[in-house]
Amino acid sequence: MDMDRIAGITLGLVMILATFLLPFGSFLLPSGQPGQATLFSMVVQFIENVASGIQQPMNLLIYEIIILASFIILTAAGALGLYPLRSGVIGILGMVLVTTVTVFNPVLGFNVPSYGAGYFVVWAASAAAIIIGKLRPNARRKVVSAVTQPPVEEVVETSGPPIDLFKPLSGTKEEAQISSAEPSQVSEPTAPDLSTSLNVVEEEMTRIRAFLIVLEDEKKDNIISGEAYDRLSARLRKMLDELETERKIILNSLAEKDLSQQS
To answer: What is the pTM assigned to this prediction?
Structure first.
């Protein structure tokens, strides 16, 4: 499992524990009395009032319904910790409802309540979940973008086979003398452009590294089995070592070519 999802699950548990155990602040309780309470205890009082059939003013009933909706939203946000971005967004929505209904209280009017530890803990956990959910997917999108870019087509120059290849084995001495006397007429294979070869090798190495990152993410997400991951990663790393050796040879050839040109 990815570290971002582990962190998301942890933050989700923090949201749930803060909602159930930590005081949210000193503001009007569903019973109609101000006091220090957790969000869970406020919801319990609201349910008890409804179950006992106590008649309540409409403005207090609206307040209690919004508190209940906030509690449900925050509980859902904590349960969705496996998906940090969604958990954080839903948690922020629940906290916005709590803040709005306590600041613009339907019973007391506009007031600034004294919030408790649970209020700030849930705010911080929701914001942290959004940050975690934003960072890791962006890194994955960059890797996928690097992998899905169309490869640069390399034009390979080829020369025809030597003329001697098609000569009969039982040639005359005159033909042999003519062929040896005119070596300039036989075309020699053209050497590849070393700079172009270096660019191609480096591009191949970059793409193999990108594939390794994607492969590692798939293993963490249980998309690929461990045995298949080990086999594929070993083959890709072997190819990477071979390309690194080829790259060093090309660099050495380029350096020798520069020295020869300077001399």
So the answer is: 0.52
